[in-house]
UniProtKB/TrEMBL annotation:
Keywords: Glycoprotein, Signal. Transmembrane segments: none annotated. One of its GO terms (molecular function) is oxidoreductase activity. InterPro entries: Cu-oxidase-like_N, Cu-oxidase_2nd, Cu-oxidase_C, Cu-oxidase_fam, Cupredoxin, CuRO_1_AAO-like, CuRO_2_AO-like, CuRO_3_AO-like. This is L-ascorbate oxidase-like protein. The lineage of its organism: Eukaryota, Viridiplantae, Streptophyta, Embryophyta, Tracheophyta. It holds the Pfam family Cu-oxidase_2. SUPFAM superfamilies: Cupredoxins. It comes from Pyrus ussuriensis x Pyrus communis. CDD domains: CuRO_1_AAO_like_1, CuRO_2_AAO_like_1, CuRO_3_AAO_like_1. Residues 36-149, 162-298, 379-516 form the Plastocyanin-like domain. Residues 1-25 form the signal peptide. Belongs to the multicopper oxidase family.
Length: 544
């Protein structure tokens, strides 16, 4: 968090001026200046072209407090356009800053862009990542933590340490090679390994002191695989999932599906020595595994013996664990009132969307889609086309709200929804691999998941009392998952698979949450510093 020199100070003042009309004056500002570059990295023992932020891989953590304004000036020193997106940050009333191509123009090589974010009414553990092309396979990701305000009670004592733990599968090939493979219409092979905080087998370590308790913020920032995380001879007490304080259930290992984030408390209550930290792939053949270490300050010896085993292909084990993750109804969230004071199960549904993922060939090339539509980006960010009323970029309703049963075809899929409605989305997965879905701009209640085909009778088994509220959910093979959402955030929001090759080849869409109101209470105007590209080039934002 720094602004260097006179130029940096002037930039900060300009940013503050830009923020004046959209941010609450008493909420603090935090300034970040990031330079995005290529650099050599060796996470699996071979040299690769990585994407670094201020020379770091992974990138620096963002530390913030509920309602903070984050001013992040990103300099693109790559030789290709670049964007960062903020997984789980809701961008209240401001989808322009979401950092995906449907909302934000890319930062050209050699240029910069200042993101103006507010972590409004949020707490918890999240991460950022590069959203364009296949940059995510090269790095550029890092952790985000949002602490509660000082007077808001937290349902556990302050930990003695707080660590970001980024786990994910990884390829030895450069991101450009992977992208070219996909562009030729081919499927990617299985990843080559797993990283923990950018390090391969044996490279990651945590330092513990006897008797102390630590918070680990675990995010799966990988490209496709669900991972099981565990620490030898230690229990993990789950306390938070993507901004929701949970019932404090204790687990010996935890399935973290791609795109998801969890906070656990771990107490150093074992004899003083070193212990394995293990992350291994789920539902794959072969099983990928990596290890790190927990080092006690009074350690009498190194790790010994084989790493502890974990679940491998068992779906029921994972499903039962997922159902056990529930909201702590009496704990406060970002506000002092209990999380259980919002009775989502008593709200009538306005509409149900059923979204079915599929794979197939289009024009002889591998594609993926939703309700038979394989998404192709338009030449202009959809949010800008919507704001400037530019025709010919997208059409609301270009994707059906239920499966059509037809073959895959290409389109820029946008699903329409009305502001202040309460809707149900059912993810139907008829494929034999696990899926992981993320919605920008929102948290949603994961009310049910089970095998087979969803029907209206499936609602009889919904959890309408203490379902966890989060932004990324898994759908097991040949299964369904149902979520409920209060559509209280106007904008253009990306709904995507977190299986990154499938996302790149079309398994995504945009949810346009619309109101005819022009009130600032419903949506902020376009940022003054917004980049304009495509058919929006030459338009004007707002006068400085």
């Amino acid at each position: 968090m720094r602004v260097n020199g006179a130029g940096g100070a002037i930039s900060a003042l300009l940013c503050l001026a830009a923020l004046f009309s959209i941010a609450v004056a008493e909420d603090p500002y935090r300034f970040f200046e990031w330079n995005v570059t290529y650099g050599d990295i060796y996470p699996l023992g071979v040299r690769q072209k990585g994407i670094l932020i201020n020379g770091q891989f992974p990138g620096p953590d963002i530390h913030s407090v509920t309602n903070d304004n984050l001013i992040i000036n990103v300099f693109n020193s790559l030789d290709e356009p670049f964007l960062l997106s903020w997984n789980g940050i809701q961008q209240r009333r401001n989808s322009y800053e979401d950092g995906v191509y449907g909302t934000t123009c890319p930062i050209p090589p050699g240029r910069n862009f200042t993101y103006i974010l507010q972590v409004k009414d949020q707490i918890g553990s999240f991460y950022y990542f590069p959203s364009l092309d296949f940059h995510k396979a090269a790095g550029g990701f890092g952790g985000i933590r949002i602490l509660s305000r000082p007077r808001i009670p937290v349902p556990f004592p302050d930990p003695d340490g707080d660590y970001t733990v980024l786990i994910g599968d990884w390829y030895k090939s450069n991101h450009t090679t992977l992208k070219a493979h996909l562009d030729r219409g081919k499927k990617l092979p299985s990843p080559d390994g797993i990283l923990i905080n950018g390090r391969g087998p044996g490279g990651f370590s945590l330092n513990f002191e006897q008797g102390k308790t630590y918070r680990l913020r675990i995010s799966n920032v990988g490209l496709q695989n669900s991972l099981n995380f565990r620490i030898q001879n230690h229990k993990m007490k789950l306390v938070e999932v993507e901004g929701t304080h949970t019932l404090q259930t204790t687990y010996s290992s935890l399935d973290v599906h791609v795109g998801q984030s969890y906070s656990v408390l771990v107490t150093a209550d074992q004899p003083g020595q070193d212990y394995y930290v293990v992350a291994s792939s789920r539902f794959t053949s072969p099983i990928l595994t990596t290890t790190g270490t927990v080092h006690y300050a009074n350690s009498a010896g190194a790790v010994s013996g084989p790493p502890p085993g974990g679940p491998t292909i068992q779906v029921d084990w994972s499903l039962n664990q997922a159902r056990s993750i529930r909201t702590n109804l009496t704990a406060s969230g970002p506000r002092p009132n209990p999380q259980g004071s919002y009775h989502y199960g008593m709200i009538n549904l306005t509409k149900t969307y059923v979204l079915e993922n599929s794979a197939g060939q289009v024009n002889g090339k591998q594609r993926y889609g939703v309700n038979s539509v394989s998404f192709v980006p338009a030449d202009t960010p959809l949010k800008l086309a919507d704001y400037f009323k530019i025709g010919g970029v997208f059409r609301v309703g270009s994707i059906s709200d239920k499966p059509t049963g037809g073959g895959l075809y290409l389109d820029t899929s946008v699903l329409g929804a009305d502001f202040r409605t309460f809707v149900e989305i059912v993810f139907q997965n008829n494929e034999d691999i696990i899926q992981s879905w993320h919605l920008d701009g929102y948290s949603f209640f994961v009310v049910g998941m089970d095998g087979g085909q969803w029907t209206t009778a499936s609602r009889d088994a919904y959890n309408l009392r203490d379902a966890v509220s989060r932004c990324t959910t898994q759908v097991y093979p040949k299964s369904w998952t149902a979520i409920h959402i209060a559509l209280d955030n106007v904008g253009m929001w990306n709904l995507r698979t977190e299986f990154w090759a499938r996302q790149y080849l079309g398994q995504q869409l945009y949810l346009r949450v619309y109101t005819s109101s022009t009130s600032l209470r419903d949506e902020f105007p376009i940022p003054r510093n917004a980049r304009l590209c495509g058919k929006a080039s030459g338009q004007r934002t707002r006068p400085l």
